[in-house]
Design brief:
Blueprint lengths: L1 H11 L3 H12 L2 H6 L11 H20 L6 H16 L4 H15 L12 H23 L13 H10 L4 E3 L4 H6 L10 H4 L4 H8 L5 H8 L3 E5 L3 H7 L5 E6 L3 E6 L2
Helix pairs in contact: 4-6, 4-7, 5-6, 6-7
Protein backbone atom coordinates (compact mmCIF):
# COMPACT_ATOMS: atom_id res chain seq x y z
CA UNK A 1 0.00 0.00 0.00
CA UNK A 2 2.80 2.40 0.90
CA UNK A 3 4.49 1.73 -2.45
CA UNK A 4 1.30 2.38 -4.39
CA UNK A 5 0.56 5.60 -2.50
CA UNK A 6 4.13 6.93 -2.82
CA UNK A 7 4.19 6.10 -6.55
CA UNK A 8 0.89 7.91 -7.07
CA UNK A 9 2.14 10.99 -5.19
CA UNK A 10 5.35 11.03 -7.25
CA UNK A 11 3.33 10.90 -10.48
CA UNK A 12 1.43 13.99 -9.34
CA UNK A 13 4.69 15.84 -8.62
CA UNK A 14 5.25 18.40 -11.43
CA UNK A 15 9.02 18.13 -10.88
CA UNK A 16 9.13 14.35 -11.30
CA UNK A 17 11.36 14.39 -14.38
CA UNK A 18 13.70 16.92 -12.79
CA UNK A 19 14.09 14.67 -9.74
CA UNK A 20 15.26 11.72 -11.82
CA UNK A 21 17.37 13.78 -14.23
CA UNK A 22 19.09 15.79 -11.49
CA UNK A 23 21.88 13.27 -10.69
CA UNK A 24 22.57 12.58 -14.37
CA UNK A 25 22.81 16.29 -15.21
CA UNK A 26 25.22 16.91 -12.35
CA UNK A 27 27.60 14.04 -12.97
CA UNK A 28 27.66 14.91 -16.68
CA UNK A 29 28.85 18.47 -16.06
CA UNK A 30 32.65 18.65 -16.06
CA UNK A 31 32.73 22.09 -14.40
CA UNK A 32 30.52 20.92 -11.57
CA UNK A 33 32.67 17.86 -10.91
CA UNK A 34 35.67 20.14 -10.38
CA UNK A 35 33.89 21.86 -7.50
CA UNK A 36 31.80 19.24 -5.69
CA UNK A 37 33.88 16.44 -4.18
CA UNK A 38 30.95 14.08 -3.58
CA UNK A 39 30.08 14.09 -7.30
CA UNK A 40 33.52 12.79 -8.24
CA UNK A 41 33.91 9.14 -9.27
CA UNK A 42 35.24 6.57 -6.82
CA UNK A 43 39.02 6.23 -6.87
CA UNK A 44 41.45 3.71 -5.40
CA UNK A 45 43.75 6.63 -4.59
CA UNK A 46 41.29 7.90 -1.97
CA UNK A 47 41.22 5.98 1.37
CA UNK A 48 37.59 6.92 2.02
CA UNK A 49 36.54 5.53 -1.36
CA UNK A 50 38.36 2.28 -0.62
CA UNK A 51 36.42 1.88 2.63
CA UNK A 52 33.02 2.81 1.21
CA UNK A 53 33.19 1.18 -2.22
CA UNK A 54 36.04 -1.21 -2.92
CA UNK A 55 36.19 -3.00 0.43
CA UNK A 56 32.46 -3.92 0.34
CA UNK A 57 32.90 -4.86 -3.33
CA UNK A 58 35.59 -7.44 -2.55
CA UNK A 59 33.63 -8.80 0.42
CA UNK A 60 30.46 -9.19 -1.62
CA UNK A 61 32.16 -10.76 -4.63
CA UNK A 62 33.86 -13.25 -2.34
CA UNK A 63 30.54 -14.13 -0.72
CA UNK A 64 28.84 -14.51 -4.11
CA UNK A 65 31.60 -16.87 -5.25
CA UNK A 66 31.65 -19.01 -2.10
CA UNK A 67 27.97 -19.15 -1.27
CA UNK A 68 26.00 -22.34 -1.85
CA UNK A 69 22.75 -20.40 -2.08
CA UNK A 70 21.15 -19.40 -5.33
CA UNK A 71 21.77 -15.72 -6.00
CA UNK A 72 18.64 -13.83 -6.91
CA UNK A 73 18.92 -11.96 -10.18
CA UNK A 74 17.38 -8.82 -8.66
CA UNK A 75 19.97 -8.85 -5.87
CA UNK A 76 22.84 -9.14 -8.32
CA UNK A 77 21.29 -6.45 -10.53
CA UNK A 78 20.94 -3.99 -7.64
CA UNK A 79 24.45 -4.77 -6.42
CA UNK A 80 25.92 -4.12 -9.87
CA UNK A 81 23.81 -1.01 -10.45
CA UNK A 82 24.82 0.68 -7.21
CA UNK A 83 28.46 -0.21 -7.82
CA UNK A 84 28.37 1.36 -11.28
CA UNK A 85 26.69 4.44 -9.83
CA UNK A 86 29.48 4.67 -7.23
CA UNK A 87 32.06 4.55 -10.00
CA UNK A 88 30.20 7.41 -11.62
CA UNK A 89 29.84 9.45 -8.41
CA UNK A 90 31.01 8.79 -4.88
CA UNK A 91 27.70 10.24 -3.69
CA UNK A 92 26.09 6.85 -4.34
CA UNK A 93 28.68 4.99 -2.25
CA UNK A 94 26.55 5.10 0.91
CA UNK A 95 23.74 3.22 -0.87
CA UNK A 96 26.22 0.71 -2.28
CA UNK A 97 27.68 0.19 1.20
CA UNK A 98 24.21 -0.50 2.68
CA UNK A 99 23.28 -2.89 -0.14
CA UNK A 100 26.58 -4.76 0.26
CA UNK A 101 26.01 -5.30 3.98
CA UNK A 102 22.57 -6.76 3.31
CA UNK A 103 23.91 -9.18 0.71
CA UNK A 104 26.85 -10.26 2.85
CA UNK A 105 24.37 -11.06 5.61
CA UNK A 106 22.03 -12.84 3.21
CA UNK A 107 24.45 -15.05 1.28
CA UNK A 108 27.31 -15.82 3.65
CA UNK A 109 26.82 -19.51 4.65
CA UNK A 110 26.50 -20.62 8.25
CA UNK A 111 29.51 -22.24 9.86
CA UNK A 112 29.54 -25.97 10.60
CA UNK A 113 32.42 -25.56 13.03
CA UNK A 114 30.82 -23.29 15.59
CA UNK A 115 28.84 -24.64 18.52
CA UNK A 116 27.41 -21.21 19.21
CA UNK A 117 24.20 -20.15 17.57
CA UNK A 118 25.94 -17.12 16.07
CA UNK A 119 26.38 -17.68 12.35
CA UNK A 120 29.33 -16.69 10.24
CA UNK A 121 27.19 -14.35 8.19
CA UNK A 122 26.42 -12.31 11.30
CA UNK A 123 30.04 -12.37 12.29
CA UNK A 124 30.95 -11.28 8.78
CA UNK A 125 28.62 -8.28 8.96
CA UNK A 126 30.00 -7.33 12.34
CA UNK A 127 33.62 -7.64 11.18
CA UNK A 128 32.88 -5.62 8.03
CA UNK A 129 31.16 -2.95 10.06
CA UNK A 130 34.08 -2.72 12.51
CA UNK A 131 36.66 -2.55 9.73
CA UNK A 132 34.78 0.17 7.87
CA UNK A 133 34.08 2.14 11.04
CA UNK A 134 37.74 1.96 12.05
CA UNK A 135 38.88 2.86 8.56
CA UNK A 136 36.55 5.84 8.22
CA UNK A 137 37.40 7.05 11.71
CA UNK A 138 41.15 6.79 11.12
CA UNK A 139 40.88 8.56 7.80
CA UNK A 140 38.66 11.30 9.21
CA UNK A 141 41.06 12.10 12.04
CA UNK A 142 43.86 12.70 9.54
CA UNK A 143 41.87 15.30 7.62
CA UNK A 144 42.20 19.02 8.12
CA UNK A 145 39.77 20.32 10.68
CA UNK A 146 38.39 16.87 11.54
CA UNK A 147 40.35 16.35 14.76
CA UNK A 148 38.30 19.04 16.49
CA UNK A 149 36.16 22.01 15.55
CA UNK A 150 36.25 23.07 11.91
CA UNK A 151 38.82 25.84 11.55
CA UNK A 152 37.46 28.85 9.62
CA UNK A 153 39.58 30.05 6.70
CA UNK A 154 38.64 33.71 7.03
CA UNK A 155 40.44 35.32 9.95
CA UNK A 156 38.78 37.84 12.22
CA UNK A 157 40.88 40.66 10.81
CA UNK A 158 40.02 39.64 7.25
CA UNK A 159 36.36 39.56 8.20
CA UNK A 160 36.61 43.10 9.58
CA UNK A 161 38.33 44.37 6.44
CA UNK A 162 35.68 42.88 4.16
CA UNK A 163 32.82 44.10 6.32
CA UNK A 164 34.30 47.61 6.49
CA UNK A 165 34.66 47.77 2.71
CA UNK A 166 31.01 46.72 2.29
CA UNK A 167 31.45 45.29 -1.23
CA UNK A 168 28.39 45.39 -3.46
CA UNK A 169 29.63 43.10 -6.25
CA UNK A 170 32.23 40.86 -4.63
CA UNK A 171 34.07 38.08 -6.42
CA UNK A 172 34.94 35.31 -4.00
CA UNK A 173 36.49 31.87 -4.16
CA UNK A 174 34.11 28.94 -4.16
CA UNK A 175 35.38 27.66 -0.79
CA UNK A 176 34.90 31.03 0.92
CA UNK A 177 31.26 31.52 0.01
CA UNK A 178 29.71 29.83 3.04
CA UNK A 179 31.77 31.82 5.55
CA UNK A 180 31.05 35.09 3.75
CA UNK A 181 27.32 34.34 3.85
CA UNK A 182 27.66 33.75 7.59
CA UNK A 183 29.24 37.22 7.85
CA UNK A 184 26.27 38.62 5.87
CA UNK A 185 28.43 39.50 2.87
CA UNK A 186 26.80 39.12 -0.58
CA UNK A 187 28.69 36.44 -2.51
CA UNK A 188 29.28 35.58 -6.14
CA UNK A 189 29.31 31.82 -5.55
CA UNK A 190 29.30 29.38 -2.65
CA UNK A 191 29.42 25.67 -1.88
CA UNK A 192 26.06 24.98 -3.51
CA UNK A 193 27.70 24.59 -6.90
CA UNK A 194 24.77 22.73 -8.43
CA UNK A 195 22.62 25.82 -7.82
CA UNK A 196 24.97 27.91 -9.97
CA UNK A 197 25.64 25.43 -12.76
CA UNK A 198 23.29 27.20 -15.21
CA UNK A 199 24.62 30.64 -14.33
CA UNK A 200 28.07 31.82 -13.18
CA UNK A 201 29.75 28.52 -12.26
CA UNK A 202 31.73 28.21 -15.49
CA UNK A 203 32.86 31.83 -15.27
CA UNK A 204 33.93 31.40 -11.64
CA UNK A 205 36.06 28.40 -12.57
CA UNK A 206 37.54 30.14 -15.62
CA UNK A 207 38.44 33.24 -13.62
CA UNK A 208 40.04 31.43 -10.69
CA UNK A 209 42.23 29.37 -13.05
CA UNK A 210 42.73 32.09 -15.71
CA UNK A 211 41.32 29.77 -18.35
CA UNK A 212 39.85 32.71 -20.30
CA UNK A 213 40.48 36.44 -20.49
CA UNK A 214 39.96 37.53 -16.86
CA UNK A 215 39.24 41.14 -17.76
CA UNK A 216 36.20 40.18 -19.81
CA UNK A 217 34.77 38.17 -16.91
CA UNK A 218 35.48 40.93 -14.38
CA UNK A 219 33.84 43.52 -16.64
CA UNK A 220 30.90 41.23 -17.32
CA UNK A 221 29.95 41.07 -13.63
CA UNK A 222 31.28 44.54 -12.74
CA UNK A 223 33.11 43.35 -9.60
CA UNK A 224 34.22 46.00 -7.12
CA UNK A 225 36.20 43.72 -4.76
CA UNK A 226 37.80 40.28 -4.92
CA UNK A 227 38.64 37.90 -2.07
CA UNK A 228 40.67 34.85 -3.12
CA UNK A 229 43.09 32.23 -1.89
CA UNK A 230 46.75 33.10 -2.33
CA UNK A 231 47.59 29.73 -3.84
CA UNK A 232 45.63 30.54 -7.01
CA UNK A 233 47.27 31.80 -10.18
CA UNK A 234 44.68 34.59 -10.13
CA UNK A 235 46.38 36.01 -7.03
CA UNK A 236 49.61 36.64 -8.93
CA UNK A 237 47.72 38.09 -11.86
CA UNK A 238 46.11 40.69 -9.59
CA UNK A 239 49.38 41.50 -7.83
CA UNK A 240 51.03 42.30 -11.16
CA UNK A 241 48.62 45.19 -11.76
CA UNK A 242 48.47 47.21 -8.49
CA UNK A 243 47.03 50.27 -10.24
CA UNK A 244 44.00 48.27 -11.30
CA UNK A 245 43.83 45.85 -8.36
CA UNK A 246 44.75 47.42 -5.02
CA UNK A 247 45.67 44.96 -2.30
CA UNK A 248 43.56 45.97 0.71
CA UNK A 249 44.62 43.23 3.09
CA UNK A 250 46.15 39.76 3.08
CA UNK A 251 47.07 37.11 5.59
CA UNK A 252 48.84 33.79 5.18
CA UNK A 253 45.94 32.24 3.21
CA UNK A 254 43.65 34.86 1.70
CA UNK A 255 44.00 38.18 -0.12
CA UNK A 256 41.44 40.96 -0.41
CA UNK A 257 41.61 43.30 -3.44
CA UNK A 258 39.79 46.47 -4.43
CA UNK A 259 39.15 46.95 -8.14
CA UNK A 260 39.79 50.49 -9.32
CA UNK A 261 37.40 51.41 -12.09
Amino acid sequence: IATVVSTFVQILNPHLLDIFSYPYINVSDSDLLKFIIEWMPASLANPAHIVLVFLPLFFCLGVFILTMKKIDFVDFLLFGSFFLLSLRSIRFSAMFFIVSCFYIYKYLPESKYLNEKITVKRQGCFVLFCICLLGMGSWGLTQKGMSGYIVPEISKQMENEISSAAPQRLYNDYDLGAELIYFRVPVFIDGRADAYVKYQLADALALSNLERNPEKIIEKYDFDYMVIHKNLVLYWYLLNDPARYALVFEDDKIAFFRINK
